[in-house]
Structures are given as C-alpha cells and as structure tokens.
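ARCHIVE CARD
Drawer: 12
Card no.: 0347
Subject: one protein chain, sequence and derived structure
Cross-reference: see card 0346
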Amino acid sequence: MVEYKKGHLRDTMAALNFSRRLLVLFFVIGWCLTWASCTYVEKGIDQTVGGPNPPADTTVTLVLNEKEEEPPEPPQIMPPPSGPLKITTTDAVLLSLTNNRSLVVEKLNPAITKTFEDTERAVFDPNLAAELWGGRTDGENQARSGSLTEDFIKDEGVGVISLEQFFPTGTTVTLEGATEMNNSSLYQDAFYWSRLGLTVNQAILRGYGSDVNLVRLRQARLETRMSEFELRGFTLALVAQVEETFWDYALAKRQVEIYEESLKVARRQVSETLSLIEVGRLAKSELPAVQAELAAQEQGLIDARSERETLRLQLLRLLNPAGRDLWQREVDLIYQPTLPQVILDEVRAYVDMGLRMRPLLNEARLKLMQNDLEVVKTKNGLLPLLDLFVTLGKSGYANSFSRSVSNITGEYYDAFVGLRFQYPIYNRDPRSRYERATLSREQAQKSLENLSQLVELDVRTAYVEVNRAREQIKASATTRIFSEETLLVETEKLRVGKSTSLLVAQAQRDLLISRIAEVEALAGYINALINLYTQDGSLLARRGIVAPGRKPVKISNFDAEEMTKSRS
C-alpha cells in the first residue's frame, strides 16, 4: 500500500507538470481559432449586415449657421439662477433641448436598444468551456480469480476543455481536449487516456447560410434605427410644442393687456354715464348696460390672467431652466412684433418632404424590413433539419498522464462522418410561424400605405390652415378698424343723446372681440407654420437642429412617393 501511494504521488506530480504543456498547446490552437473569428468572421458579419457596428445616435443639438463640413459649437444659454427668464424662440428651443427631462429620458432609449445588437452578435462569439472533476471509490467487487469478493480503492479524474465557434454559414466548429485517469489498487499501474479532437457540424437545409443566421442581428440593428427615429420624432414634437407654447404665452400676455385696456375704457364709460345721468341728459335706465359690460370685462380679465399663468407654468416645465424656485420665475419673451415673411411652395413639395422625412413613416419602413427578414427566417424553418458532421481525433493511452499526451501522435485515432435528420410529421409549428410572418409582412405593407395617406392628409390640411390663418390676419385687422370707428360713433351719439348705453356697450364688446381676434390670428398664423413644418418633418432642419434620423429610409420594393403620385 505504501508503494502504491508513492507511485500515485509520482504520477500525480508528472501529470501536473505535463498538464501545463497540454494547456499551452490547447490555448495556442484556441487562440488561432479565436483570432480567425475576431478577424475574418467579424469582417464577414460586418460586410453582410451593412458595415461595422456603429454606436447608437443620441445626438440632439442646436447648431446656428450650420455648415456641412464642420458645424460650429452651439451657443450655450446661461440663464440667471433667479429673476425673470428673458428668452427668444431660439433660446427657448435650446433650453428645452438641454434641460427638458422628458427628452433626457428619451435619449437613453437608442443606447438601451443597441445593447440587443451586442446580444445577437454574441451568438457568433467563441465559447470556451472547461470541466474538471475527480474522486475516490473505496468499495468491494467480485474477485478476479473466483466467486469471492475483494476490496479495492479506485481514484478517477476527468478533465475536458473545449472551444466552440458558430459561424454565420451555419457551421459549428468545436475543438476539444480531454484526459481521463483511472488508478485502481486492483491493477499495478494507473491507466491514462488523452484525446485531442475536432468536430465540424454543417447545416445543409434548415439553418444554412448567413442570410438566415444573421436575421436576428439585422433585426436588432433595424430596431436600433427605429429607436433613433423615435427619438427624432419626440424631439420634433418637443420643439413644436415649445414654439407653440412660446407664442401661446405671448398671445395670452397680449390678451391680458387688451382686457386691462378695455377695462379702463369700460370704467371711463361708466363714469361718463353717471355724469350724464346727473345732468339729466341720460335716464337712470341706461346705467345697467354699461355696468354689465364692466362686469363682463372683469370676468374676461380674470380668465385671461388664469390662462397666462397656466401657459407660463407649461413653458417653464418644457424649458426647465437652472436655478431655484422654478415655478415662481417670470418669463419675459423677446420677439419681433412683425410677422415672418414666408412664401409657400406648392403643396406637392411639402407632401414629398413629409413622405421622406416624417419619423413615423421611416419607422414603419424599418418595421416592414424587419418583417421581410422574419419571412426569410421562418421560410427556412419549413425545411427539415439535415446536418453533416465530421469528427476527427487523436488519442493516446499509457500508464501515466505525460506519456498518454505524448502518445497522441501515435497510431490511435478516431474519425466519424454522419448525417443528422429531423422533421416533424405535420410540421405545424414552422408552418404557423411562416404564415404569421407572411401575414404580418402584408399587414406592415398595408399599414405603411395607410400611414403614407394619413401623412399626406396631415400635410395638405396643415397647408390649408396656413393659407387660412394668413388671410385671417388681414380680415381681423379690418374688423378691428371698423369696430374702433363704430365705438367712436356710438360714444359721440350717446353724448348728444342719439344713442343708448346698450349700443355703446355692444360696440365696446365688439371692439374687444375684434382686438383679441386680431392677435389670435397673428399667433395662429405662426403656429400654423410650425404645424406645417412638423407635419412634413422639416422643422428640425429649418431650426438648425441636429438629431438622429437625418437620412430617410429607402425600400427598394416600395416607393411611397410613387404610390402617392399615382393616387393624385
């Protein structure tokens, strides 16, 4: 038993010393396989999926005087930590792009979505695995020389290390090194077996080719692009909301001023009416009409101030300026009192722009491309599983670990070639997947056509609204001029006793309405332009804003513009 233990210790030390050589050899071969994967396989994947894996685009900045070569740094708005916030429309947009919390949250989505690309790309990464175990058995079995039993002590150990690589062609290559030790007290020497093998498995039908095996990676990349267009659409909506709220707040402030001026006129009219009643030129029955008008003006002023305060809070929420006491800050707007001189192109130009640049349409096109890939994958899934596998190995046998490894170069080998076949009798699951993918693809196609029509409707409707709002400016100004003259005439007639306080009050009401309608027409025209540029997807470019999704998606077998032209 002492000699057995000494021999076992000697073999163990020899095994530990020589195991390092086996590991070095294995890792050299594995490194070669990994290097081939990191160069040729990675380059092949990049070429097949349309280039190397770019980072997710989350850039949203405002660039003034933008140049294609090298855009200058955007201006930095540094509002005071407290006090009134004095801003132009450009300042408001820049503040929202920098500080708006909803946009900050939305900008994380493309980066999050892009992690799924790395998940799908990991399918083609080399996989290194190792297993090592050992143990002892102290037992009894049938004696070798008769029917009696005898005691035995058996030490066993197994070590396996493997490197596996799956290629986009449907090929799986596995490099494996294994060794096994069996040392029993029933035998004089220990027995060692070592093997170095290579297995290649090639899909012939189902799972064959990079077009099928790269589908999920392509779909993940399309999903990342969709998230970038979602970010662009959110930014587009945010900028439009900021500008519309800016002008709505300017309108609300002007309405408060109009009500305050009109209230002064109404109070003066009440005072004049009282004076005329005192001198006997008017009856007391004329007083309730002007007093009612005064009360109505006060009611209107209360509502106008409430609307102004509400819009101030909404604008502060959108801008989220730095500093304390966010909700208590006043906002002073800086803008030109004159209207922008805009010459509209033909409506067809805006429709074409919308069909190219609307983020929602580009998302739908990417979704259609995803469904096309799903059809390719599920169609391949209809095929039976037929794999060709080849296994080659060299083995060494000896009474020590080092000799078993050195004997691998000897005459002992194993070689196997075979086919693996599998096909469900009814094949219902793959057929249902393929049918679902086909129907989803058709649904995506119809949805894209419907969405294109809705986009054209939105653009044309916004175009009509711009023309209507522009014409309303002149009409409302004319109405206001005549209302002023009417009020002057009725006031003079009242003073000479040829009119009534009721008619004067009505003239004051008409003038107030016409003045408010005039400023509403001005603000409405600006907001109509903003809405038109939002519907055709050009608002960000017109404002010099760089955001993801600057290049529209093109689908070779589907041209939304040609489809729309054929309808018109």
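Annotation on reverse: The domain at 216-369+436-567 is CATH 1.20.1600.10 (Outer membrane efflux proteins (OEP)). The chain is about 60% helix and 15% strand.
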